[in-house]
Amino acid sequence: MSTFNEIDVTCEECAEEFTGTIWTAVHAQEDPELKDILLGGELNILMCPKCSHSAYQDHFVLYQDPAAELIAYIYPPNQAVEADFLHKAMRTSFLDAQQVYPLKERKEYEPILVFGLETFVEMMHEEESRAEQSQIAEAICKEQKIPYLLLRPSKARSLGLLRVLPVQGEARKADRQSVLAGLEKLLAVNPELDFYAALRSTIQKNKNWTVPA
Ligand SMILES: [Zn+2]
Question: Ligand 1 is a single-atom ion; what residues have CB below 5 A from it?
């Protein structure tokens, strides 16, 4: 569920005091229009009624998108100094909240901690670009009969990987050699897939690279 709060704001330009409404929780599936506003960098920007100055209101926002397996606790940037404390508090409150659900309904992924809505918006844009390239890769793999692994969204995110990983052989091994061979085939078809090209050079440089189980 998405929720909002009334907050008191003092304009940083003309010192006018006014009350504004900001979102404190955004549920991307229930309120896709809020997700679009957020991606457009316009969530929680309030305009001063006196001088029209617009400013982002730093406030905690809980962002949820179950389809993307994403729960983000977004704190104002100036709270980054308390990162360790907030991370512990986030895990505790998340695990406590999960306790009320039966085992099979509990989330199999952990929330992420982000400082600043701007940082989160950048993260989301990069994730969208990755998702686009993953979709192209999946279409190529199907067409060219290249076997591939499909990672869960939360796993791909936490590993900094793309969801679709081309591999070699029907055994679909996730080891270094198999993924490198798959990437060679994929990039031979479309060298423009820059996230995949970057992944290939990361793997080439790291002799111990592997996809954690
Ligand atoms: Zn003002």
Answer: 11, 13-14, 16, 48, 50-51, 53
3-state helix, strand, coil in the chain (%, to 5): 45, 25, 30
Q: Could you tell me the residue ranges of all domains in the chain?
A: 3-116, 126-205
Distance 17 CA to ligand 1 centre (A): 8
Query: Where do the DSSP E strands lie in 32-172?
Result: 45-47, 54-56, 61-65, 70-75, 112-115, 148-150, 164-166
Pairing of the two strands 17-27 and 3-10: antiparallel
Confidence of residue 203 (pLDDT cuts 50, 70, 90): very high
Question: Model confidence over 24-51: pLDDT tens digits?
Answer: 999 999 999 999 999 998 999 999 999 9
Asked whether the beta carbons of 148 and 185 are under 8 A apart, the reply is no
* Each residue's pLDDT tens digit, 130-150: 999 999 999 999 999 999 999
**How far, in Å, is the centroid of ligand 1 from the Cα of 59?**
19
Query: From the CA of 38, how far away is ligand 1's center (Å)?
Result: 23
Cα dist from 186 to 7, 37, 60, 126, 196, whole Å? 51, 35, 41, 21, 9
At 163, is the secondary structure helix, strand, or coil?
Answer: coil
Q: What is the pTM of this model?
A: 0.85
Distance 122 CA to ligand 1 centre (A): 28
Report pLDDT digits (tens) over 146-170: 999 999 999 999 888 999 999 998 8
Q: Tokens standing for 61?
A: 């926002």
